[in-house]
Design goal:
The termini are far apart. The protein has five domains: 77 residues, no CATH class; 137 residues, Rossmann fold (3-Layer(aba) Sandwich); 64 residues, ATP-grasp fold, A domain (Dna Ligase, domain 1); 176 residues, ATP-grasp fold, B domain (D-amino Acid Aminotransferase, Chain A, domain 1, 2-Layer Sandwich), CATH 3.30.470.20; 54 residues, no CATH class. It is an alpha+beta fold and 556 residues long. The protein has a seven-stranded antiparallel sheet with strand order 15-14-11-12-13-16-17. The chain has a six-stranded mixed sheet with strand order 1-2-5-4-3-6, sandwiched between helices. A four-stranded antiparallel sheet has the order 7-10-8-9, sandwiched between helices. The longest helix has 17 residues.
Length: 556
């Protein structure tokens, strides 16, 4: 629509949109002919309908007319300009289709035919992409199954044809619509659901929670205010201070100058990221002011509503994920998962093991204690996920997500407890204590490892170095009698062949050379119980060439 604003290319835009002649001209009128004063009311109903038929959203019209999206929506509804819903014809036009598989259009006949039954709407995750994948679709599906069995009519809202949640028989009614405020509100107006679930679709529906709540939509589960409390870095930091829970030093910045001041106060290195993003997008570890300035200038857009988050980066820290179920009656620790990679790698790109294998019992007790305190303080009703880090024997809270996490399917399979199903029922009014779950779920005597699958083979030339920004496109699970067996199976499932012999090439920066020596020594010694090590490594000097030891070679 750039041509609409500039007045250029209007003939081409009309041809491409197949709009009637003159369709685009009223936008200029709506913007004001002489003074530039917005005049949404100057657009005649037939032309406004033509805009909607051409696919212009309320948000776009608000931008073109210098109004808010809510004002455009209100004006459109006053004129009676609302979408109708058609059913996908799954019968090839041979006979009438009764499939409750609906999509919106600005026509006349409405085929939605909503019922009067108690109904719960589930907002899906939208298109699968890095940071928001099939794990959230799993949660949406299991929530739909559980709520249907509990007697609710289930309504799924999603727009991805490649997922199970958009199978026509997963829910009672499926709306194949984008996850935007306008489209969700249009469905709410038609269906008038008893409750709407935003916690199972990842960050996309979570970002809509406050606007839907303000519009009067009945959000069930954890309240939108609690969701915002966990998402808003300042409010969340205040909460942690009140609870006496440690967190890395942090701040928020809306300018380069503010970012510099915060980074100097905290001390480099720092972790920088935008607000409200998927999969750690545009997240980076910054080691000096020059890199920070470059990040602020080129990597992200920021504003007072969406500041850049700056946290002290905990180098060489161990990271853990904790999934939990909670309501006002109980808090159940579903699983404490230890990341195999150190902190600094996005949780979606890090392998993890359940149960944890390298952590002191006192730290486990601390994480359990913090989880229960946060569940109560946030009034969590349903699922929640907390990311912890341990640095110098101190447990820090990195972030809290009052929603289903991408590890819920993994923990559910490892423990045998359907977390998403129970979470959905708790959100719908059941009490968690009635499910007779222990205070902490456990696995059998085996080890369970979740490992990511990366697309690097399909994208030659892409830097495979992992970072705080997520890269993986899938995950696998390995189960074994020992941690090593489970990890090896996970690596095999992820398409990584672990060699039994050969060369281990270690390339590190200067700051990590001390640790690299220890890793090289362990690599050599572990080969068939060999005790011979590289003499240069023993002396702490640079290693030139290869040192043979019991069939293993290490190159530094």
């Amino acid at each position: 629509m750039l041509g609409v604003r500039t007045g250029s290319g209007s003939d081409r835009i009309r041809r491409n949109l197949r709009n009637p002649a003159g369709l685009l001209d009223p936008v200029a009128t709506a913007r004001g002919s002489d003074t530039g004063t917005p005049a949404l009311e100057n657009i005649p109903l037939d032309l406004l309908r033509a805009f909607k038929e051409a696919g212009l959203s309320d948000r776009r019209l608000a931008y073109l007319t210098h109004r808010t999206e809510d004002e455009v929506r209100s004006y459109r509804k006053e004129l009676g300009l609302i979408p109708v819903y058609k059913r996908v014809d799954t019968c090839g036009a041979e006979f009438e289709s009764f499939t409750p598989y609906l999509y919106s259009t600005y026509e006349e006949e409405d085929e939605a035919k909503p019922t009067d039954q108690p109904k719960i709407m589930i907002l899906g995750s939208g298109p699968n992409r890095i940071g928001q994948g099939i794990e959230f679709d799993y949660c949406c599906c299991h929530a739909s199954f559980a709520l249907h069995e509990a007697g609710f009519e289930t309504i799924m809202v999603n727009c991805n044809p490649e997922t199970v949640s958009t199978d026509y028989d997963t829910s009672d009614r499926l709306y194949f619509e984008p996850l935007t405020f306008e489209d969700v509100m249009n469905i709410v107006d038609v269906e008038k659901p008893t409750g709407v679930i935003v916690q199972f679709g990842g960050q996309t529906p979570l970002n809509l929670a406050m606007r839907l709540h303000d519009a009067g939509v009945p959000i069930i589960g954890t309240s939108p205010d609690s969701i915002d409390l966990a998402e808003d870095r300042k409010r969340f930091g205040t909460l942690l201070n009140e609870l006496g829970i440690p967190q890395p030093e942090n701040g928020t910045a809306t300018s380069i100058a503010e970012a510099r001041v915060i980074a100097e106060r905290i001390g480099y290195p720092v972790l920088v990221r935008p607000s409200y993003v998927l999969g750690g997008r545009a997240m980076a570890i910054v080691y000096d002011q020059e890199s920070l300035d470059d990040y602020m200038r080129t990597a992200v857009d920021f504003s007072h509503d969406r500041p850049v988050l700056i946290d002290k980066f905990l180098e060489q820290a161990a990271e853990f994920d904790v999934d939990a179920l909670a309501d006002e009656t109980a808090c159940v620790i579903a699983g404490i998962q230890e990341h195999i990679e150190e902190a600094g790698i996005h949780s979606g790109d890090s392998s993890c093991v359940l149960p944890p294998v390298r952590i002191a019992a006192e730290h486990l007790d601390t994480m359990r204690h913090y989880t229960r305190k946060l569940a109560g303080a946030l009034s969590v009703k349903g699922l929640m996920n907390i990311q912890f880090a341990i640095k110098d024997d101190r447990v820090y809270v990195l972030e809290v997500n009052p929603r289903a996490s991408r590890t819920v399917p993994f923990v559910s399979k490892a423990t045998g407890v359907p977390l998403a199903r129970i979470g959905a029922l708790v959100m719908a009014g059941h009490q968690l204590k009635d499910f007779a779950l222990p205070e902490e779920l456990s696995v059998d005597e085996r080890f369970y490892v979740k490992s990511p699958v990366f697309p690097f083979r399909k994208f030659p030339g892409v830097d495979p170095v992992l970072s705080p920004e997520m890269h993986s496109t899938g995950e696998v699970m390995g189960i074994g009698e020992s941690f090593g067996e489970a990890y090896a199976k996970a690596m095999t499932g992820a398409g990584l062949a672990l060699p039994a012999s050969g060369i281990a090439f270690i390339s590190v920066n200067d700051a990590d050379k001390g640790q690299a020596v220890l890793l090289a020594r362990r690599c050599v010694q572990s080969k068939r119980g060999a005790s011979e090590c590289c003499r240069s490594c023993e002396a702490g000097r640079d290693c030139s060439g290869y040192q043979h030891a019991a069939g293993a070679r290490v190159a530094l």
